[in-house]
Specification:
By secondary structure, the protein is α/β, with parallel strands linked by helices. It contains 27 helices and 17 strands. The structure holds 2-acetamido-2-deoxy-beta-D-glucopyranose (12 copies).
């Protein structure tokens, strides 16, 4: 049996591991379709059952058994889950989605039976998911039920190798205590709940606005135990964290002779919050800490994985570029891992080779990777394969196994976006051209909309030829809008228009999800035509997206029941958001044109300004209708984690600290706006109480000055006043109820506004 030999200290995980059975699948069906699990018969096909020491491709078959059950037989639990989704999507036309949740309950009372045997085979053994920073941009305040949905989604989409970062601070706290640092020397090292990813990377240290409380550390550790247990039940091999070398400043007080280097400078953060202390792997204390970190996790969770995520130079150059030094760093790190767990495989994000390409010349990459002397002991995530792949220039990471990943999104930004050709054609050609490619995966910084793009790559892992996206989009529509409604042809038309416009970016000067300029601090320059990772260029004809919007709207005129379909409501709001984003950019360009070239015959500046404000004022209530586009639930989820374990009068203080983290990340991102607006969001409440006031002060100022008299500092000061005011927890700023009444707001506010700006 797959996990039979595992000795485990933790009851619930031990049970899951020992089972190594199909029970997790029956439980999944019961969670989503209570009482229906007896319709299914899951079976591990022993003839093709893979074991995790030698990953092989997966297989499944779906058929109707002689007793009438829906029979799914497969090579692994993950393949069983993939076969189950194949049944849901292709036979029953239902699925489970981010934001909207499970639509599996839209099944007819009698589950349809397959008429013939359907088979599937993966073309790669590993299907990977998560970026280290997804744990901060998307999941920091997630409850167990949020995780349950996510893990069911991952399982059904065939993911078998997810990152599992939650609760790592508990392990680090234990480890540093064990080498005699005190709690008060350790806690100031950790970053706040919304910023832990960058502390784990060694980019930041410490927390602005308050110190990370022990209650957070304990609570997240408890959550991690549930997450790991569920991952195992659903056939996933979790990737656990390891010791990187980043340590509290106070370590040198306890070990004055420790070999450490300082001097990292991440973004524009002051030394207090960056300049992290890195303990060199050559120091014996490094291996000691590695051993404790790995062993603690073996004790708490069992020997449940051989995969460890470990990044030392993410956006953080090594102390020296000397090839011998680089090789020593990896060799020491690798040896420490193998000493702690002989089966260990070091998983590394390859982002540094993209982001810090100036430092990482090919010979340095080769030297660094060569320190891991056994290729199979490392697994490199080619992090942004659809736009900035590194595997070709590094000759497939000089032989190390690697995974082709679609990153797609930075900071949880929300533009409609896809590179349908690059995520279907390129991974297939990579597989043909690289013998060490072992998986496909997803590495979004933030989990956002555009879910079809994520599903597409995970489905590509089961298709030896590039998926036909026209057919794929059609099938998506058929399944997505299943409900108490017909599916009018305009829905298919709308998605075909999106497929050939917003989802078909081929100009990779702009190479990821786009950003709405109204989310940026108002300015007279640098807003439109930004390229790169947060582009504001519009690489398609915006009229096509307006046309898609019109088709979506017309579909609901044909079939009014769509207004009660959760998937339709979500997509309608999302596409409307994009129409607004594009309209705002063109209106802004017109306004600047009039401001710089005053002309008495043109539409006056004030009229353009009024249009911009009208757009923001009418978009805000639309976004607020649905919780997934509303700020309030994000803030509430943060506060709830503090209040979940009431601790007398301190819980309100803690709740305020968590709320500050939640507000700060999506706005100023740092105590002083160090990476202002990086993780901006088109959310109800944020648009109305943050972006709108910033534009108000800007437009008011602009209306009163000529270009020659414009003073940047004066504008910046006004805008900064708005930004600072929004950070305050408990102010209620941006808090809106979600009414769910999309139709009402569309009719009362959106349609009139779009008419007013000339789009309808
Ligand atoms: C795993 O598979 C390999 C190759 O198929 C085989 O040699 C090995 O014995 C298997 N291990 C277990 C524990 O089944
Ligand atoms: C099990 O796998 C083998 C080899 O692929 C296949 O021939 C057989 O049909 C599978 N059994 C079931 C029940 O799917
Ligand atoms: C199975 O075949 C019957 C008869 O042709 C048909 O009515 C039904 O829709 C088919 N079911 C599926 C799931 O394709
Ligand atoms: C921690 O302190 C204890 C008691 O003073 C000592 O026995 C132990 O060796 C110390 N551990 C380390 C790693 O220095
Ligand atoms: C640190 O190194 C110095 C010089 O080699 C030595 O005298 C001292 O004892 C060492 N201190 C510790 C705590 O190991
Ligand atoms: C970085 O940290 C080290 C060690 O704490 C300190 O000596 C150095 O002055 C710091 N650098 C800056 C720029 O503050
Ligand atoms: C690399 O490590 C070896 C053995 O620990 C040491 O002799 C050598 O000086 C180190 N080289 C560099 C450049 O740090
Ligand atoms: C954990 O399991 C792996 C693979 O089965 C094995 O190589 C390794 O030695 C085990 N580690 C420990 C600490 O028992
Ligand atoms: C992505 O696809 C476009 C054509 O659609 C192609 O020009 C480009 O080279 C591809 N990009 C990468 C990184 O492979
Ligand atoms: C995507 O755009 C490219 C370049 O403009 C074009 O060649 C290709 O046919 C388009 N694909 C689709 C599906 O629209
Ligand atoms: C790609 O986009 C850049 C930036 O917007 C633009 O300058 C360039 O002309 C575009 N290239 C093509 C081929 O459209
Ligand atoms: C506008 O952007 C430029 C370039 O980033 C910057 O120097 C300037 O301070 C900005 N102005 C305002 C008001 O933010």
């Amino acid at each position: 049996m797959r996990f039979a030999s595992v000795a485990c200290a933790l009851g619930s995980i031990a049970t899951a591991v020992a089972a190594a059975s199909t029970q997790g699948l029956y439980d999944l069906v019961e969670r989503r379709l209570p009482g229906r699990s007896h319709d299914f018969a899951f079976e591990l096909n022993e003839t093709v059952h893979v074991n995790r020491t030698t990953p092989q491709n997966d297989h499944y078959t779906v058929s109707t058994a002689s007793n009438g059950s829906i029979a799914i037989s497969a090579s692994s639990v993950s393949a069983l889950a993939t076969g189950l989704r194949r049944y849901f999507v292709d036979i029953a036309h239902v699925d489970l989605y981010w934001f909207i949740g499970s639509r599996l309950d839209q099944l007819p009372p009698t589950l349809p039976r397959p008429n013939s045997t359907i088979t599937g085979a993966s073309i790669v053994p590993w299907r990977y998911f998560f970026n280290t920073v997804t744990f901060s941009y998307t999941t920091p305040f997630w409850s167990w039920s949020d995780w349950e949905l996510e893990l069911d989604w991952l399982a059904l989409h065939g993911v078998n190798l997810p990152l599992a970062w939650v609760g790592f601070e508990k392990i680090l706290l234990d480890a540093f205590q064990e080498v005699n640092l005190t709690t008060s020397q350790i806690l100031p090292f950790f970053s706040g709940p919304a910023f832990q990813a960058w502390n784990r990377f060694g980019n930041t240290q410490g927390s602005w606005g308050g110190e990370l409380p022990l209650q957070w550390i304990d609570q997240q550790f408890e959550l991690q135990q549930k997450i790991l247990s569920r991952m195992l039940e659903l056939g996933m091999t979790p990737i656990l964290p390891a010791f990187t070398g980043f340590v509290p400043r106070a370590l040198v007080d306890v070990y004055p002779n420790a070999t450490v280097v300082n001097g990292s400078q991440w973004e524009d953060f002051p030394p207090e919050f960056t300049n992290t202390t890195f303990l060199e792997p050559s120091d014996p204390l490094f291996s000691e800490l590695q051993n404790i970190v790995v062993t603690k996790q073996l004790d708490y969770y069992g020997n449940i994985t051989q995969f460890y995520t470990l990044d030392q130079y993410n956006e953080n150059d090594p102390y020296s570029g000397d090839l011998g030094y680089l090789r020593n760093v990896t060799r020491g790190t690798w040896q420490s891992l193998k000493a702690a767990n002989p089966g260990a495989v070091w998983v590394m994000q390859g982002w540094l080779f993209t982001s810090n390409a100036d430092f990482w010349t090919n010979e340095r990459i080769e030297a660094y990777l060569s320190g891991v002397e056994v290729d199979e002991d490392m697994l490199v995530l080619d992090l942004f394969s659809e736009s900035q792949p590194q595997w070709q220039r590094t000759d497939s990471y000089y032989g190390k196994p690697w995974i082709w990943n679609q990153l797609h999104d930075y900071g949880g930004n929300q533009g409609l976006y896809g590179q349908i050709d690059n995520v279907t054609v390129n991974p297939i050609s990579a597989l043909a051209n690289s013998s060490s490619l072992v998986g496909f995966g997803l590495t979004p910084e933030g989990q956002e909309g555009n879910e079809i793009m994520y599903a597409l790559l995970l489905d590509q892992a089961w298709s030896p030829t590039p998926i036909d996206t026209a057919a794929y989009f059609q099938s998506w529509v058929r399944t997505r809008y299943t409900g108490n409604n017909s599916i009018p042809p305009q829905l298919y038309t709308a998605w075909e228009l999106l497929r050939t416009s917003a989802y078909n970016n081929t100009n990779l000067t702009s190479n990821a999800v786009s950003k709405a300029i109204f989310e940026l601090a108002p300015n007279t320059t640098h807003l439109t035509n930004r390229t790169g990772h947060h582009p504001t260029t519009i690489n398609y004809d915006p009229a096509v997206v307006v046309d898609a919007w019109k088709n979506l709207y017309a579909a609901a005129a044909t079939e009014p029941a769509l207004w009660t379909n959760a998937a339709y409501k979500h997509d309608f709001v999302d596409v409307t958001r994009q129409v607004y984003s594009n309209a705002f950019a063109s209106t802004y360009a017109d306004l600047l044109d009039v401001w710089t070239h005053p002309n008495s015959t043109a539409r006056p500046l004030a009229a353009h300004a009024a249009s911009l404000l009208l757009l923001l004022r009418s978009l805000d209530p639309l976004l607020a209708t649905l919780p997934q586009f509303n700020l309030a639930p994000w803030l509430a989820s943060a506060r709830t984690l503090a209040l979940a374990t009431p601790n007398g009068s301190t819980s309100a203080v803690v709740a305020d600290f968590y709320e500050y983290n939640a507000r700060n990340q999506i706005t100023r991102w740092g105590p002083h706006g160090e990476i202002n607006d990086y993780a901006s969001k088109s959310w109800g409440g944020l648009v109305g109480d943050y972006y709108l006031p910033r534009w108000l002060v800007f437009l008011e100022y602009l209306g009163g000055v000529t270009p020659a008299a414009y003073e940047d500092g004066a504008v910046r000061a006004r805008i900064e006043g708005v930004e600072a005011g929004f950070q305050v927890a408990g102010s209620g700023l941006g808090v809106r109820e979600s009414s769910g009444d999309v139709r009402g707001v569309v009719e009362s506010a959106v349609v009139p506004a779009l008419r007013e700006v000339g789009l309808l």
